[in-house]
Amino acid sequence: MSKEVKHVLGISGGKDSAALAIYLNNIYPELDIEYYSCDTGKELKETYDLIDSLEVYLGKNIKVLKAVSDENHDPFDHFLDVYGGYLPSNTARWCTKKLKLMPFEKYIAGDAPIVSYVGIRGDEDREGYISKKANVQSIFPFRQNIWSEDVITKVLKNENLEFILKLYQESCFHDNKDRILEIAKTPLSNNYNQKTKLGFLLDSSTKDFNKVVFQFLKTTDYPLGKVESYPLIENEDILVRSDIFSILKESGVGVPGYYEKREYKVEIDGEEKTGYYSRSRSGCFFCFFQQKIEWVWLYENHNELFNKALAYEKEGYTWQQGETLEELSSPKRVKAIKKEHFTRIQRTKNNFKSPNLVDILTDSDEWEIDWEEEEGRGCAACFI
Ligand code: SF4
Predict the structure, then answer these.
(1) CA 91 / ligand 1 centre spacing (Å)
(2) CA 3 to ligand 1 centroid distance, Å
(3) Closest Cα to residue 283, out of 18, 16, 17, 44?
(4) What's the 284 CA to ligand 1 centre distance in angstroms?
């Protein structure tokens, strides 16, 4: 492999990026990966613990990137001052831009070719943050399709069809070669879109598709066009949520502590019930993407952090629309939020007749999170 291409992986403090670091370290030790983490100054202690454990496991330093070096303020508080106390929100997400994306862009500044690994899983349908810089290429090792959308669009463009067909003819020795060539030579149309063609090619032979893409990249300026060989083109693994937890546990690094479910009591129709809550994401302790029940979790399990979050709410600025944290933490609201959460989880469970319910809702006895709901919220840069 060429020395000039740099390989980087961002550790968010979430489960997927941590598992990706472990996975790549174990399966592809020949990749010399640099690890980094963008520190807002407001991460949970569990995130810092995870980073420490990963450093020990990987035997490598994880470079901490801070958006500013300000002796008096951590990065979040620095930018909060710059924005005149205006708290970030779903619709004004200056925090992600300033505290996560800009430090990353600064870290990869220059023209050196860079491959950036992203922990989007095989059971997710999203892309994550992709740098627009021409010298940066994203790779998704947990998915069947390891390539980014821009690469796929170029490879499957009708104008490249003859070239791709030629690459398949030269490099494919699969039993199913005739069928694969048939797929490769069918142009995209209204009735045959990119997603369908990609699915057919990957399902016919992931390795052959990867080989063809890799050869195609050699005719481009993409970073992986500059290396002689690349081990991930042989990869056929598809990793889903349960695999991520297995990787974290089996490595000894462990699952971030905030996922661990904790009991709460709630009265439903005059009867006391036991519900479970936890935090479902990494990122800042006051992150506005968290659900009401996560705020209650913070209030009851990290009260000092809840009070710090509350102290930021002044002059009309609040973390959530329509309710201050002071209002949310009143006994009446806490009770109502728990009741709503308990009822929703029960309803979801009852609606699923599938034996795979356990996979959908809990993955294990140790946590009970509605992952489908949670992972659809928020930003990939902070939570992967
Ligand atoms: S974790 Fe939430 S508050 Fe922190 S930078 Fe990301 S989006 Fe903003």
Answers:
(1) 12
(2) 35
(3) 44
(4) 5
* Ligand 1 and 281: CB distance under 6 A: no
Given a contact cutoff of 8 angstroms between Cβ atoms, the answer to whether 238 and 221 are in contact is: no
Summarised one tens digit per residue, pLDDT across range 282-299 is 889 999 999 999 999 999
pTM, rounded to two decimals: 0.89
Question: Looking at ligand 1, which atom is closest to the CA of residue 378?
Answer: 7
Going by CA atoms, what residue is nearest to atom 3 of ligand 1? 287
**What strands lie across the sheet with 6-10, from one edge to the other?**
62-65, 33-38, 6-10, 114-117, 136-139
End-to-end CA distance of the chain: 28
Q: Is 38 in the pocket of ligand 1 (CB under 6 A)?
A: no
Q: Do the beta carbons of residue 46 and residue 275 sit within 8 Å? A: no
- If you average pLDDT over residues 74-96, what whole number do you get? 92
Tell whether ligand 1 has an atom less than 6 A from the beta carbon of residue 283: yes
**Domain ranges across the chain:** 6-147+237-251, 151-234, 257-383
Q: Which two tokens stand for residue 189?
A: 């149309």
Q: Is the CB of 279 under 6 A from ligand 1?
A: no
Q: Any idea how long the chain is?
A: 384
**127-139 pLDDT per residue, tens:** 666 677 889 999 9
Tokens 């968290």 correspond to: 290
CB of 362 sitting under 6 A from ligand 1: no
| 47 Cβ inside 6 Å of ligand 1 | no
DSSP annotation of 381 = H
C-alpha 49 to ligand 1 mean position (Å): 19
The answer to whether the CB of 379 is under 6 A from ligand 1 is yes
State in Å: Cα 192 to ligand 1 middle.
39
* Overall fold of domain 6-147+237-251: Rossmann fold (3.40.50)
Q: How far apart are CA 68 and CA 191, in angstroms?
A: 50
pLDDT tens for residues 244-283?
999 999 999 999 888 888 999 999 999 999 999 998 888 8
d(CA 90, CA 325): 17
CB-based contacts of 289, cutoff 8 Å, min separation 6 = 90, 281, 283, 377, 378, 379, 383
